[in-house]
Amino acid sequence: MPVVIAALLGAAMGSFAALLAERTLRAEPVLWARSQCRACAARLGWTELVPILSYLWQRGRCRHCDARIPPALFQAELAGALMGAAAALASPDPLRALVLGLWMWALLALAIADLRAFRLPDRLLLLAALAGAAHVGMGDGSGWPSLADRTLNAGLGAGAGAGSFWLIRLIYRLARGRDGMGLGDVKLMAVLGLGLGLERLPLTVLLAALSALIVSVLRAWRRGRPLNRLGRVPFGAALALAAAVMAVL
Ligand SMILES: [Zn+2]
Description:
Blueprint: H1 2-25, H2 53-57, H3 71-90, H4 94-117, H5 122-138, H6 147-176, H7 183-196, H8 201-223, H9 235-248
Residues 37, 39-40, 42, 62, 64-65, 67 line the site of zinc ion (ZN).
């Protein structure tokens, strides 16, 4: 039962993460703007705001103007639901599950922003950092490791994450004469290292690199282009989602 409730809350939070990412990218107010159709500006009633279900029963189209609702919104709601359920399964204590969920939903918002616009906005990074710090502060309830050890591990994780990516960025710039990675990825690694701690960081980067490579190979194959002509890869999104997976494993 708690898993079902967490999944329902998660679907709503996935929807909110998509909204948050969208409005942050457009520098619009987040909370005090009514939900409306992006195509015809019709205000949406509550039946049109039910996550996952409203998309399915409207067959992915606006009820007022028949414009296509972006499938990404539906995918964000599904991902949010999965994250909520995973947080509830990973942590039996409701408050800890909620904080873990908040961390993953903040990562989801970052992933959406990177996929939409190749940007990792500071506001979303800060949100993820705060949720990650709360998660570290609460621990898993066993009292082990101690708060001091958890804090040290979070600090080492943040430093190692940001330091290693900053170094990669510098080496790439020296070798190729241009930036291969945004500063947002460096900040994201600090945030992920803070929330995950030092020892889970290498596996997170490996998981992100492997999944980004698989997605890139599939995209190159579908478009019939060589892999090195594919253009930018939203690696921040891969990192954020890999960290969400690592957080519950
Ligand atoms: Zn519409």
